[in-house]
Fold this sequence. Notes:
Elements: H1 7-14, H2 18-26, H3 33-45, H4 52-58, E1 62-69, H5 76-92, E2 98-105, H6 111-123, E3 129-132, H7 140-149, E4 154-157, E5 168-172, H8 174-186, E6 195-201, H9 210-225, E7 229-235, H10 239-252, E8 256-261, H11 264-276, E9 284-288, H12 292-299, E10 305-308, H13 311-328, E11 336-339, E12 342-344, E13 369-371
Parallel strand pairs: 1-2, 1-3, 3-4, 4-5, 5-11, 6-7, 6-8, 8-9, 9-10
Antiparallel strand pairs: 10-12, 11-13
Amino acid sequence: MTTKATLKDIAAAMGVTSTTVHRALRGKDGVSKETRRTVQEMAAKMGYRSNYLASALKRKSIRIAVVLPDPVGDNRYYYGNMWLGVRNFLAEVSEFPIIPIERTYSLVYGANGAALENLYQNYMDEIDGLITMGVDQGQSLYFVEKFTEHGVPIVYIGNDVPGGSRFCCIQSRDEMAGSLAAELLTAFHEDKTRKKVIIIGHFGQLGMTDQIHNAKGFEAYARENAPYLTLIQLRGADRLDVCRELERTLQSASDIYAIYSCSARYTIYMLRVIKDLGMGGSLKLIGNDSFEESLDALRDGELTAIIDKKIARQSYLATKTLFDYTVKGEYPPSRQLQLRPEVILRSNLKKDFLPALTPSDNPSAYSEILLK
Length: 372
């Protein structure tokens, strides 16, 4: 249709009130699921489009708080991409009166909860939405509940906490990431003699379970499809201790076939240990997450492959989800959205490869997401 339909047009066509149509299209209470669905279908049929830009420009500034680890030092490998996705989306909607409130914290025990507490005490009455990570540690969940009680929608990135009151979570399908790595190391390997594979990471040391699920996916695939493998798990938050243990393990065992890192930072630690021991090219090495150093290692043949969990894409969509709700009144298709991880090899790595921030065709679509 060339003529834009209004709320009154839809109400007249359906024989309901404009208030009912408004509630149905804005996701508000007071209408049944069936009525909401019928109104949405009629609105689409009549070509209704909400002028949310004009509406947003008339209202007060929208304050979106972002509480994530500081992307410095070794944090830059993973959290640098996380911040990149957030800021990229906010730059795309710069015509809206959005004021970001950014808070960073060190990646240590209780720091996420302390940052949320500071935000709550100083900005509670000013915040329209919050983006952070799902952390089951310290005061994190307590303040998530406090924000929720005040009607602040919270979107998690990267890690979920079951049973929480967050509005939505966008993360990778972590078990799939692990199973992809295991399949890469075994599906085309005809030598079925017994050998060992090392899995390395911090595995939930800081109240996040994404790496635990990643390792479980690897172990489940190997158990079912490659029973000849013996898995050695090296874990810990202290990188020096883990790297020393990796060195000792590599020096004492001659039948180690490969190493799989479940994290971005341990991908780099793994490469450093291999270089120091002069073992480059002797093992299959698979890392996690695409960032400058890991991509360079893949180009140079130091890494066999990268399992890319699309961190920047996750945070881009998390910010978009919060924007769509606070500005447009639109709900996400599900409370948990999972991106499919991608295998990156030298053959599909472009010279100028950078982490993908937006879909190539339709920035508003959730086409690559699994719903839960």
